[in-house]
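Deliverable D2.4 — example input (structure tokens):
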């Protein structure tokens, strides 16, 4: 990405250290280092601050990156779609198994073991989607593209901010809650079906 070089060039033109620039745009020195080495991409808010400080437009800073951002967004969208299909397919298979297992009065340990085995790929797919957002900064790219097109970049959206320190813990917690809710729904649906069938 060309933006990494541009940030460094403008910073050096102004005679600023990475720490000086970090203080000016309210981020850490490590964040500036990550931007300049192309490890991460700034969000729209940071780009606005940088463009004001450097006296250039956002468009001039990111114009050359735009095709690469679009390619990354398209590739990321395809991968997320595939992971979404895996998540839905295995999630529904898990729910169906629990319902069938209860209706057929199978051993509880067997129902739970097979259900967990089916739920694991769904959880891994959901985790991968979050990981892609975190590692590849796809939402940051989407936000920048929206801004350049005159749309609302929604800079205050939680997805447009750098993923927090506890994103893995949140994903694990949501997965556990999803398992509990899924099992409760499965047992409830199985009970209703069982009564309807007169078992």
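Example output (designed residues):
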């Amino acid at each position: 990405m060309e933006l990494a070089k541009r940030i460094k060039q403008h910073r050096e033109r102004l005679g600023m250290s990475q720490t000086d620039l970090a203080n000016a745009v309210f981020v850490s020195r490590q964040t500036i280092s990550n931007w300049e080495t192309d490890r991460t991409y700034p969000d729209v808010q940071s780009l606005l601050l940088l463009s004001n400080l450097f006296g250039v437009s956002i468009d001039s800073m990111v114009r050359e990156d735009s095709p690469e951002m679009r390619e990354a967004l398209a590739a990321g969208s395809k991968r997320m779609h595939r992971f979404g299909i895996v998540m839905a397919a295995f999630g529904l298979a898990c729910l169906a198994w629990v319902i069938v297992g209860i209706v057929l009065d199978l051993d509880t340990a067997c129902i739970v073991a097979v259900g967990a085995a089916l739920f694991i790929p769904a959880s891994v797919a959901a985790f991968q989607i979050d990981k892609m957002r975190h590692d590849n900064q796809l939402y940051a790219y989407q936000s920048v593209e929206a801004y350049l097109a005159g749309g609302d970049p929604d800079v205050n959206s939680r997805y447009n901010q750098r993923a927090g320190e506890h994103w893995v813990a949140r994903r694990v917690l949501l997965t556990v809650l999803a398992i509990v809710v899924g099992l409760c729904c499965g047992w409830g649906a199985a009970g209703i079906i069982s009564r309807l069938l007169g078992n």
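Confidence is low (pLDDT under 50) at residues 155-165.
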